[in-house]
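Morning, I've got a small favour to ask if you have a moment. I'm working through a protein record and want to make sense of it properly. The fold is given in discrete form, as structure tokens running alongside the sequence. Can you walk me through what the tokens say about the fold? Thanks so much in advance, here it is:
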Amino acid sequence: MSYRITLSESSDSFDAQPGEPLLEAAERAGFPLVHDCRFGGCGACRVKLLEGRVDYEEFPFGLTEEEAGEGYALACQARACSDLTISASLLPEGHVPADFHVATIERLDKLSHDVTHLVLRIPTASDVRFHPGQYLNVMLDDGSPRSFSMASPPNGELFDFHIRRVPGGYFTGRLETHYQPGDTLDVELPLGAFRHDATSPRELLMVAGGTGLAPIKSIIESLKDDPLRPGIALYWGVRRAEDLYLDEQLRHWARTLPDFRYVPVLSEPDPQWGGRRGFVHQAVCEDHDDLAAFDAYLCGPPPMIAAAKTSFSQRGLEVERIFADSFNFTHELDGSVA
């Protein structure tokens, strides 16, 4: 027995087997749904259930209970329990598929006590026009990937990254002790569905946690010279003042860019800190009772993303206008690659 899955936008349909994730069934039938991580963390494959029911082997952390209650599901984890009608996004025509390249380490600089600025030179990717917000994979010797977002817009054959050292992490530890300029890495790019929706006229609410600033910065830099760009409010949450590794640059943008606001928020501030305190999503809510006029772009750890989604939707921000890039470090701590 199989279930019939109908795409509301086109009335096309495909079959899904019991227990088969919707994303896999759609790909098997030739319908490339927008997706990213494939394990329920990023939320990029979110679809709207218009008819029918789904279940999960384990409820995905990239979906909030509020979103599920409104009829949303994550296609990479959802299994059909009946015939379905769904509203879903397909990869656009002209989508640039990921490819493998050899990168040379151009620069390795310290941005803070635990964040490295990595610059890669990838001559064969100089014409790859990735979307600001996307990422690449660094491929290790055992074939496992490490994912890092580009921190600046397309810039020929140079690619910028902000990489935080993960305690016990294999690659991020070697980045400080093993690699040096001139070394080469195998990389795969471009990857990821996180990007700015240029068709929307709404103001932009950018919320970053830690090095989640990287793809947010890429998007902002791609827009800052556009005279028609919408207003941008950037909230950056870190633990302590020493973690604000690009604070001076962002304050300069706030002084010189029209309609750009920058709010740093510390969750574990020293007594001398005179700025905002607490969790970054709470600072947004303290400043805005109504978020209906915004598109929100969120990048950071899963708990931050989940809390922000819940709080922002309660203040009128439509679920469809929340774009998130959630990261975790589970693979970095895998002893099998140590």
About this structure: The first helix runs from residue 22 to 28. Residues 10 and 200 are 22 Å apart (CA to CA). The chain has three domains: 3-87, 99-193, 203-326. The domain at 203-326 is CATH 3.40.50.80 (Rossmann fold).
